[in-house]
Amino acid sequence: MSSTRFRLAGATLALLLTATVGCSAGEGVDVDGGNAAGAGGVLNAAIGGEPDQLDPHKTSAYYSFQVLENVFDTLVEPDANLEMQPSLATEWTTSDDQLTWTFTLREGVKFSDGTPLTAEDVVYSYNRIINEKLNTAYKFGTVKSVTASNPTTVVITLTAPTPNLLANLGGFKGVAIVQKANVESGEITTKPIGSGPFALSGYTSGDNIQLVRNDNYWGERPKLDGVRFTFVSDPTVALQNLRGNEVHWTDNLPPQQVPALRDGDEPKVESVPSTDYWYLALNQGRKPYDDVNVRRAIAFALDREAITKAAKFGLATVNQTAIPQNSAFYYEYAPYSHDPNQARQLLDQAGVSDLTMDLMVTSEYPETVTAAQVIASQLEGIGVNVKIRTLDFAQWLDEQGNGNFDSFMLGWLGNIDPDEFYYAQHHSGGTFNFHKYRNPAVDQMLDRARTETDQGARKQQYEQVAKQIVDDASYIYLYNPDVAQGWSKQVTGYQVRTDRAIRFRDVALTR
Q1: Fewest CB within 10 angstroms: 153, 249, 277, 334, which?
Q2: Strand 316-318 and strand 100-105: pairing?
Q3: What percent of the chain has pLDDT over 70?
């Protein structure tokens, strides 16, 4: 996850949503009259932090994508079962050699400012990601060219069969179709223009982002007039606001209260296993973490059950690999029992004693702070003195990008294909390989697996990848969390998703 911090406010913009929709935030109105201006109401959503910026091709922060999920479209998109379905593309064909994919675009699609979205916009968006080597460039590693044969046809040619191409093009809004003029003006970072069900209408830095219904949306018209995302870092406050009807929806719930909340009627709280994983990374560009014995010592010293209990209160599954148990690509492999004696022996083999380790966490993801305290206590038992460094997320990202850390804890969210769990993080040329892991054998396996068309063989190859990464302790995996979200009785039509995508296009507010 890397990005730069976005900060732009404006009282004028902050007022725009209310002026546009003609009703106050939080006002429940007649759902059946949703086609009339001002009839749907504005949904107040409390999220745990502020987006670092709003350019979908440059941010990788979850807080950004909570908003952008409702602003942008992709060529295809995952349904509730994470199967790819039509979105901007209505259909597609593949050549016999699987090297040419032809996509037919939906006719009449417009950006929220009323300008048409054509095949040239798709070409521009993908080439921007590729040529500028942006965050998701690794998803286009086998793309030879992207062309528009006419305004509604996009042709993608590949250098090798790519079985996960649809997941690459639609897995999340980091591969959204953007407007060239919006990018070239630079306004995409502050005033993004997409073709999704809502359009950005205001931003009050440090407080909220406001969306208004996009009346140019190609799909079924949203029932809501708008959505206000308010930044509430304290989950206890977010829950109080939900109970007090100051907000209608939040995913920032105190984890220790979720089991009881699920059994209650108000607010409605649901949780599902996610496709996420959380992990500890050690900087292999620094000594002594370049020594696999040191990394394995840390892995043996950790009691994952205790870490997960403290950080998630049971809302997670301990795991030593990345892919969760609900995936067809799950690989059961857990070589690191909680064994401090084994950890001390490995440190002795590495000639390491009296080690002090910097552990970088961020206050905008409180579970990293809680987990770090447990990790520090456990590593103290093997003679490792952990210095916890708690930063705001913008500074955290900068420090990660500059390699200024001994270790850090964070998560990867919303993965679908196994390539997304491993390639960018563990290939030596991976975009997100900030911890500088290098293993030529893993590079070769990752390159081969992403072009393997036999699903059985592909699964075996990713199992080999997972085993080697775990044996090398490239990441020290901790757990796969659940997704827990809550909403008031006023909210109907909302669905908790395993990929954590927050979609309000089908949601309505009742009185």
Answers
A1: 334
A2: unpaired
A3: 92
Q: Is the pLDDT of residue 31 over 60?
A: no
Structural contact between residues 449 and 458, judged by C-beta atoms closer than 8 angstroms: yes
Residue 138 tokens, joined: 């690794």
Distance CA 345, CA 342 (A): 5
Residue 186 reports pLDDT greater than 90: yes
Residues whose CB falls within 8 Å of the CB of residue 402, separated by 6 or more in sequence, listed in order? none
Task: Calculate the alpha carbon distances from 503 to 67, 71, 275, 482, 490 in Å.
Answer: 9, 10, 17, 18, 16
What CA–CA distance (Å, rounded) separates 494 from 375? 36
Question: Are 451 and 97 within 8 A, CB to CB?
Answer: no
DSSP secondary structure string for all residues of 264-297:
SSSSEEEEEE-S-EEEEEE-TTSTTTTSHHHHHH
Asked if 273 contacts 480 with a C-beta cutoff of 8 angstroms, the reply is yes
Read off the pLDDT of each residue in 458-469 and give the average, rounded to a whole number: 97
Q: Which residue has the tokens 């044996």?
A: 471
Long-range (24+ apart) CB contacts under 8 A made by 423-431 are 423/138, 423/450, 424/138, 425/474, 425/475, 426/465, 426/469, 426/474, 426/475, 427/138, 430/138, 431/133, 431/135, 431/136, 431/137, 431/138
pTM, entire model: 0.85
Distance CA 432, CA 173 (A): 17
Q: Helix %, strand %, coil % for the chain, to 5?
A: 30, 25, 45
Residues 6+ apart with CB under 8 A from 426: 433, 437, 439, 442, 446, 465, 469, 474, 475
Cβ atoms of 337 and 468 within 8 Å: the answer is: no
CA distance 71 to 56: 10
305 CB neighbour count, 10 Å cutoff: 11
Say if residues 298 and 452 touch (Cβ distance below 8 Å): no
Task: Please give the pLDDT value at position 39.
Answer: 62
Give the whole-angstrom CA distance, residue 134 versus residue 58.
6
Is the pLDDT reported for residue 7 higher than 70? no
pLDDT, tens only, 190-209: 899 999 999 999 999 999 99
Neighbours of 80 (CB within 10 A): 12
Predicted pLDDT of residue 3: 28
